[in-house]
Amino acid sequence: MQSLDQRMQRVVVRRQELARRWDALRNNDLLQLLVVTLPGLLQAERCGVFVLDPDADELWLEAGTKVVQRQICADLDDSMVGECVRTGSCVNRSVLTPEARL
Following DSSP, what letter does each residue of the chain receive, concatenated? Predict the structure, then answer.
């Protein structure tokens, strides 16, 4: 038979897991709302929300138009997304060369 402390610990762990899942769902819903809404508001063809891991200097696509989560990774130093993150400025190029990277 389980003690009260053991049962309470199981309840706490379960509650933490449910809270983590709920937070993940809410954030995904918000990101998907941005991806659907922003292109029309900004007169843009596509939209992407990138996440930066500052410890590893890695960028990846968390949500975007017609792409799968983490389908795209970008270099922090050698990409348009990286330039945007590093400078905090919008990067808009209408003519891209073959060497241009995301």
Answer: ---HHHHHHHHHHHHHHHHHHHHHHHHHHHHHHHHHHHHHHHT-S--EEEEEETTTTEEEEEEETT--TTS-EEESSSSHHHHHHHH-S----SS--TT---
- 56-73 per-position pLDDT tens digit: 788 989 889 988 888 889
Distance in angstroms (rounded) separating the CA atoms of residues 81 and 76: 7
pTM summary value: 0.62
For residues 65 and 82, the answer to whether their CB atoms sit within 8 Å is: no
The label of the residue with tokens 């990277």 reads 101
Which pair of structure tokens corresponds to residue 15? 């509650």
In tens, the pLDDT along 6-37 reads 888 888 888 788 677 766 666 777 888 888 89
